[in-house]
Amino acid sequence: MASNLDVFGWFDNDYDEDGFRTCSVTGFDVHQSVENHVKLYGVTAVVFMLIGGIFALTVATTRWEYIGLLEAGDYYRHLSMHAWSLLIFWIIFMEIAILYVGGPMVLGRKLPIEWAAKLGYVVMVAGAIIIYYTIWTVTGNPVEDNAPLLTAYIPLEINPLFYVGAIVFVLGVTVAALPFFLALWYEKRENPGQTLPLVTFGAFVAGIIAVQSILGGLVAFSGGLAYQLGLAPWFDAGMYRQWFWIIGHGTQQINLVAMITVWYLFTHVIGGAEVVSEKVSRTAFILYLFFIVMGAAHHLMVDPGLSAGWRIWNTSYAFYGATFASLVHAFTIPAGLEAGRRKRGKGGGLFGWLTSAPWKNPMFSTSIFAIILFGFLGGITGVMMGQLQLNMSWHNTFATVGHFHSTVVLGTTVTFMGVVYFVIKTMFQREFVSPKLASFQPYLYCSAMAITALMMMYVGILYGIPRRTSEVVRNIPGTDFSIIGAAPLFHVFGIFALIAIAGGALFVLLAVGSLLFGKRIEPGEDDSLVPDGGLEMATDPEDPVHAYEMRGTFILCLIFLGVFVVAYVLNWFLLTQLWSIGV
Amino acid sequence: MTSPIKPPKGNWWDQPVNRRESIWLGLGVGWALVLFGWMSAFTRIGDQNPIGETYRVTEDELREKVQAFEEAAEQRDDGAYVPAGDDVYVVGYQFDWDGLPVVLETGQEYDFHLGSYDVQHGFSIRPEHAYSQQINLHVTPGKEWIIPMEFDEPGTYHVLCNEFCGEGHRGMHNTIIVEEGDDGE
């Protein structure tokens, strides 16, 4: 598909006459229709990361009131830009790319209905532009035109065009996802009775959760639009919140499942991991399918008008069905790595499989850091704040922001950075402009971001610092009161946020730099990614992986559970120090 | 057979599961039940639950109720209301809390009527002497949420809004003054 427009040579890999090539790393039969669209969505995602990252800088230096960069009105516009760019655009463009990898690429198929991939792309970009326009033109008059932030809660007066943009974007995502579902349909029709590979299965579950989310989003945004136009005065704040969070939280569950799918893929392809039990891993995915959308209810824990029973049932994902699923993956992914590496002779002692792992490979380190940080910081806090009573100390505090920076940034974004590195290496077939910096970047970014997120949680829980405000620590307009006690922790927050943003900038520089100036990798030249023994070892029926030791993983998981229990007890201790509240 | 990128062959469902994996699954189920059980039990045995009756209410009805509350209350020199009974109204609007400041006593249970005249707000409260003792409840227009509260320590409790409600959101602050009650120790 070498086109005159392809001035950077981004779309000119060598394919056979049927349009396929064999990937030297994964062994996938890659069709150009799949690969080119993965590249398109991936590169676009990086552009949105750049935009969102610029606003991360202005938002963080405003919340660090020592600098206090922006005025309130500007702050809310910048915050809206930051949220939509990173939480929605960067992540969802990446997710479409991941669906194409997990579906047609893993299965060695063409991308069906290519036009839908292109149309979906155009519609998504159009939706993004409408949203950007409506955010950037906000006047800030409280009874006319407020910044939407992420949530655009009615009845706050928000430009109706914003909801149109959101609907357009969501419809674009739907169209873009069609080729993925169709590829699976064809695959099952041609191979009846054959099980899908685990990665494809995970991507499929992510796809179904996406459908659930999109349906909720269409109701929320259409209702919001109708309300703002005066057509549906009965569509009230409570209804909007419930429908909105089906997409608002649902999209985060897509992130979760997509990210876990990538973890299975990368630990295998780069680290030599294997699936220790197809039954257990797939059952965990199925649990997500049934229970995870209920988790959206934890945004409504301290809302009026919902019965305690409804809240407890839903926020516990029906007895923590989805939390259990995450606990399962928390074991099976590292266990797969441990057993797979032991099988390859790379795992002496308790943790030899970890210490010998390819830590300098940013595709590997991003996934491992994401597993650890998502679990310890994001997962544990998510369960905390999802408890009916504990939610009173978390709701809408800066701690919430710390929680979702642990899940969406330290988990999803870090994982997806690894995906971008992977796409650069194996699909664009470019060397990194600086392999050393590429190895270093995940360490810089993850460590700084982890401390930033921790500080957010501390100031939120220990000082009750609210989220979504430009001033509260050093000054609250109209009163002498302020929460100045939190100022020292905000210095730590601010400094590490800046370091994290530098780490993010380094990522964008490396990605764009490698695409523009990276040395081209000729086919067959780069097999450095493949784990010792090759991937074929995983398919040897005489050497089942479940028979290998998993004691290192078991110890790590016990440590995790221990931290979980301690954090849980501490949170409850803090809550019970309060005055008596509620019936 | 155990590659995540190849279709698993044969009867993969009946492949044995590693013993440590099985133990972990048991621990996971147990922990999930503890999480659920404690949360559920605490609604019966605990003193801090975001639970109370909710009533539909129009803006006008709510304004009348708050006005009646303020008229019945004694107003001190500093402008703070001393409620006549056990009912306390705290209603958010762009950009302050109606019904505040209010003077309450320790050891007495008050019914807090939380609501909003206009958009969504966040009722976020902490005493000046211990910031970590803070709670947050969401308020939406059209609903009157009645949450009982009984303070056991005197002090100035600061109420902030923690849901974005417009550009003046950051200045949405008021106070609840809790004084030692007659029967307080």
UniProtKB/TrEMBL annotation, chain A:
GO terms under cellular component: membrane
Chain segments annotated as transmembrane: 40-61, 81-103, 115-135, 161-186, 198-223, 243-265, 285-302, 317-337, 363-384, 404-424, 444-465, 485-512, 554-575
GO biological process: aerobic respiration
Pfam families referenced in this protein's UniProt entry, alphabetically: COX1
InterPro entries: Cyt_c_oxase-like_su1_dom, Cyt_c_oxase-like_su1_sf, Cyt_C_Oxase_1
Claim: Transmembrane is one of the keywords in the record: yes
Residue span, Cytochrome oxidase subunit I profile domain: 40-517
Swiss-Prot/TrEMBL keywords: Membrane, Transmembrane, Transmembrane helix
Example of a GO MF term: cytochrome-c oxidase activity
Key word Transmembrane present: yes
Entry protein name: Cytochrome c oxidase subunit I
Organism: Halobiforma nitratireducens JCM 10879
Automatic annotation (TrEMBL), chain B:
Sorted UniProt keywords: Copper, Membrane, Metal-binding, Transmembrane, Transmembrane helix
Domain called Cytochrome oxidase subunit II copper A binding: residue spans: 83-185
GO MF annotation terms: copper ion binding; cytochrome-c oxidase activity
Gene3D superfamilies named among the record's database cross-references: Cupredoxins - blue copper proteins
Cellular component per GO, a single term: membrane
TM regions (residue ranges): 23-42
Chief localization: other
Keyword Cell inner membrane in annotation: no
Keyword Cell membrane in annotation: no
Alphabetical list of PROSITE patterns matching this protein: COX2 (PS00078), COX2_CUA (PS50857)
Compartment(s): Cell envelope
Protein name: Cytochrome c oxidase subunit II
Upper lineage: Archaea, Methanobacteriati, Methanobacteriota, Stenosarchaea group, Halobacteria
